[in-house]
Amino acid sequence: MPIALRILVVEDQPLLLLDLADQLIEFGHHVVTAGTARTAARLIDGNIDALVTDIELGDGPDGLALARLAAKARPGLPIVVVSGGVRPTHAQLPSGAVFLPKPYRVADIQAALASRQAARAA
């Protein structure tokens, strides 16, 4: 059974945010949600085990900036970046981050987080 993680999920579309949070909870994770990168940046601390963020977050910093901030503040933090419109290059992602295009399967997010968590533990 996968280890339960405390995952920060960042998505500016409320229905998508709630849906993803609910599905991750079904996988046994604890979920903290944010609708903006600014709010999420205040939540990246020692209590978060992973980050899942959309790239396009409306006004303010985007999810790529948030992912880079999180990677700098918390080296080794498992990060999954998703988007339906933006396809980042490898160089735009922080080292070790995984990109999944929308529509994604939550099982793919779960697998990416588990793989990053295992790499972090090794």
Automatic annotation (TrEMBL):
One example of a Gene Ontology biological process annotation: phosphorelay signal transduction system
InterPro entries: CheY-like_superfamily, Sig_transdc_resp-reg_receiver
Start and end residues of each Response regulatory domain: 6-117
Alphabetized Pfam families for the sequence: Response_reg
SMART domains: REC
Alphabetical keyword list: Phosphoprotein
Modified residues (4-aspartylphosphate): D54
Listed Gene3D superfamilies: 3.40.50.2300
Protein name: CheY-like chemotaxis protein
